[in-house]
Design brief:
The chain has 8 helices and 18 strands. Helices cover 22% and strands 33% of the residues. Strand 14 (313-320) and strand 15 form a beta hairpin. The radius of gyration is 24 Å and the shape is globular. It has a 6-stranded mixed beta sheet with strand order 5-6-7-3-8-9, with helices on both faces. With 423 residues, the chain is an alpha/beta fold.
């Protein structure tokens, strides 16, 4: 393949609804097919007879030493593409050729067991990811130092804070030194300082001639680190080219919508523990709307099902402006549920953005569901809804009678006081 690290040719992936694992190329799929045969059912049968194409005719090439971005909305096919590249599942048609040793950072903390110490988990996780024991031992001190958990390395990770857990998990993954590194949203976790540290590590990997495939909803990270990128939508490549051009197309191509609902619980984003059923933007009167007067509050609402009790869930909203700058991240701090395990059932959490806070323009909302101790991101539905803030120009907002361009991502109507002393 010469200078080509990854070549994807006319890749297709079809999933049969109701077949779960039976149609994929994983070990679970093989077991499911064997069970179907024992039950007298055809190995590839599906209860519904329906299927969906997660990928359709996807083709691209990545040069050796290139940092390549993959972006798209939730359900666009990014995760399926990564699973095929990581050999977790097989394509229905087409092929993906990998030239070199690769590692997929598909989930921080892969292989971690809460009852084992940090030291034991480093060795276990490294072994699961393909590292030999001698290689882990040689890099052990560097892994621990990067994670900044030296004092707690012989403590069971169930006692770690969410930050410690994330740092150690990322450090193991980042020190594998593969030829090709696949990174899926790892940079979105941890505090701001550690995110910058992760970014530096990824840039270092790229500068040393290794190939990096970065999948992220952090558009500044994509434009900063990647020269080229592809945009996926409904399993197809919508655009391929310079990362900046692809990101601009992604940010401005879609229309805003004030709500998204999943009536079929099996299609709702989530896992076996929790699923998000709806995300809505409402006015102060409770009406779903995509246009809000700057002088009125905005209500963000997430509806979710807790399927297994006992978890302390924290609903989260991320708000982005038109330039994809993060305006804020809001964690649910309702005292009625703070540090309180949830029972199974349906929940609706609401957050109110006060009036005279956001500036004029279009905003996108991502909805997340996480547990903090230990940290686990259960659901992330990026930019699922949006709304526009309008100003009527009556002069009673922060703008007053000024008609020029207003700088900033927020426009608060602050309380002003003036003290006057006569001559």
């Amino acid at each position: 393949m010469g200078d080509i690290a990854v070549r994807v040719d006319s890749l297709h992936k079809r999933y049969h609804l109701g077949a779960t694992h039976a149609q994929d190329g994983s070990l679970a799929g093989a077991l499911a097919r064997g069970l179907r045969r024992l039950m007298g059912r055809p190995a590839g049968s599906s209860r519904t007879g329906e299927s969906i194409w997660a990928l359709r005719d996807v083709s691209f090439e990545i040069q050796k030493g290139e940092v390549f971005g993959v972006i798209g909305t939730n359900g666009s096919g990014k995760s399926t593409l990564l699973k095929i590249l990581s050999r977790v599942t097989e394509p229905t048609k087409g092929r993906a050729v990998i030239n070199g040793r690769f590692c997929g950072l598909l989930e921080v903390g892969t292989g971690f067991h809460p009852e084992l110490t940090g030291r034991d988990n480093v060795y276990m996780s490294g072994a699961i990811l393909g590292m030999k024991r001698q290689e882990i031992a040689r890099k052990f001190d560097e892994i621990v130092a990067f994670a900044e958990v030296e004092q707690f390395i012989d403590t069971p990770v169930k006692h770690y804070s969410s930050g410690m857990y994330v740092r150690l998990g990322f450090s193991v993954l980042a020190h594998m030194d593969p030829d090709i590194l696949i990174v899926d949203e790892v940079l979105a976790v941890g505090d701001v300082r550690f995110q910058k540290k992760c970014m530096g590590k990824m840039e270092d990997v790229g500068q040393h001639g290794r190939t990096v495939i970065l999948v992220s909803h952090d558009m500044p990270a994509i434009t900063r680190m990647c020269k080229r990128a592809i945009l996926l939508n409904k399993g197809e490549v919508v655009q391929e080219g310079a990362a900046h051009d692809v990101v601009n197309h992604y940010l401005h191509a879609g229309h805003i919508k004030p709500y998204e609902e999943w009536l079929d619980p099996m299609q709702a984003p989530g896992n076996e523990v929790v699923r998000i059923r709806a995300v809505r933007v409402k006015s102060e009167s409770g009406q779903i709307t995509d246009r809000i007067d700057i002088r009125r509050p905005v209500q963000l609402e997430v509806e979710f099902d807790v399927l297994k009790p006992g978890h302390v869930f924290v609903p989260v909203f991320n708000l982005y402006n038109e330039e994809d700058v993060t305006v804020f991240t809001a964690h649910d701090r309702d005292p009625a549920w703070q540090r309180t395990p949830r029972l199974s059932g349906r929940y609706v959490s609401m957050a109110t953005i006060p009036e005279n806070f956001l500036t004029e323009g279009v905003f996108a909302v991502s909805a997340l569901m996480m547990t903090e101790t230990p940290f686990r991101l259960h659901v992330h539905v990026p930019r699922v809804v949006g709304f526009r803030i309008d100003e009527s120009g009556t002069g009673d907002a922060a703008r007053g009678d000024f008609n020029g361009r207003w700088m900033g991502v927020v426009r608060p109507l602050l309380g002003w006081r003036t003290r006057y002393t006569p001559d």
